Every structure is written in structure tokens, then in C-alpha cells.
Amino acid sequence: MTLEELVPCESSKMQAVSEAVERVLVAAQRQDRLTVGVYESAKLMNVDPDSVVLCVLATDEEDEGDIALQIHFTLIQAFCCDNDIHILRVSGMQRLAAILGEPEAGAEPRDLHCLLVTNPHTDAWKSQGLAEVASYCAESRDKNQWVPYVCLQER
Fold first, then answer.
1. Residue-wise pLDDT tens digits, 58-100
2. Full-model pTM
3. Residues 28-57: b if buried by 16+ CB within 10 A, e if exposed
4. Which residues are within 8 A (CB) of 148 and not within 5 positions of it... i.e. 6 or more apart?
């Protein structure tokens, strides 16, 4: 049984959080506050973990058998929990690619499995979407679901 089977993607709460995640990612990318890729994310968290406000781990069914990716996810999740970084698992890699757009021509394809949203060390960048996602993460932790799940809906 997969996580997607346990958590319904059609609920109104799930749709609201999914839309908030999308808004946060688009705004972070526009403001150059988005780190894309497992290795790039690990480097940033090693150098400046206090700047990270949200970690998004993305997989689809075909990634479930990738043991190396699952090990990376486990280590990233542990680091996020130790450093009070909100963490979220999402499915819908095609939707994620559509939200973030295609890389420049000639550039290597991006690894969208791990995304970090950073915040400057000032309170200038606040987002309603980020507040919604943080609230969802906190509610999930209160229910002992340490890594909440969100299904990104195709549109």
C-alpha cells in the first residue's frame, strides 16, 4: 500500500494545500529563493540551514523502487526534523515540472525530487501560501504524521 492510497487526493483540504504549495514554489522561484535538486539542497542545508523554511520531496510511483533516492530522502527528512524545517512529500512530478517551467535550452534536466524554499534573514518575505503550508505541516505533526503528503493535481 502506498502513501497515495492512504491519503485521498480529492479532499478540499488537500486541494487548498496543493494550490498553496504551487503558489509558494512559483513565488520562491521568481524571487530566486528556490533550490532545486537533491545534491544542491544537501549542500545548502549544510551551509545555511537557518535560511530554509520548507523542504519539498517529490516522487511518483516509478521512483518508489529507487533505493538511493529513498536513502537521500531519509537523510534529508532527518536533517529537516533536527533543524525545525517544514517538510512535505508531494506526488505529481509532471505537474511540478509544469509549475516550475522548462530549464533553459541546452541546460541539463533538473532534478525535481528535492526543492528547498529559503527565506532571507529578514521578515520581508512572508507569504500567505507559506503560512498555509506551514499550518498543514504543523497539523500533520500533531497527528504524528511527521512528513505530510500532498498530491499536486494536473490541470
1. 988 888 888 999 999 999 999 999 998 999 999 988 899 999 9
2. 0.85
3. bbeeebbbbbbeebbebbeeeeebbbbbbb
4. 87, 88, 89, 136, 137, 140, 141
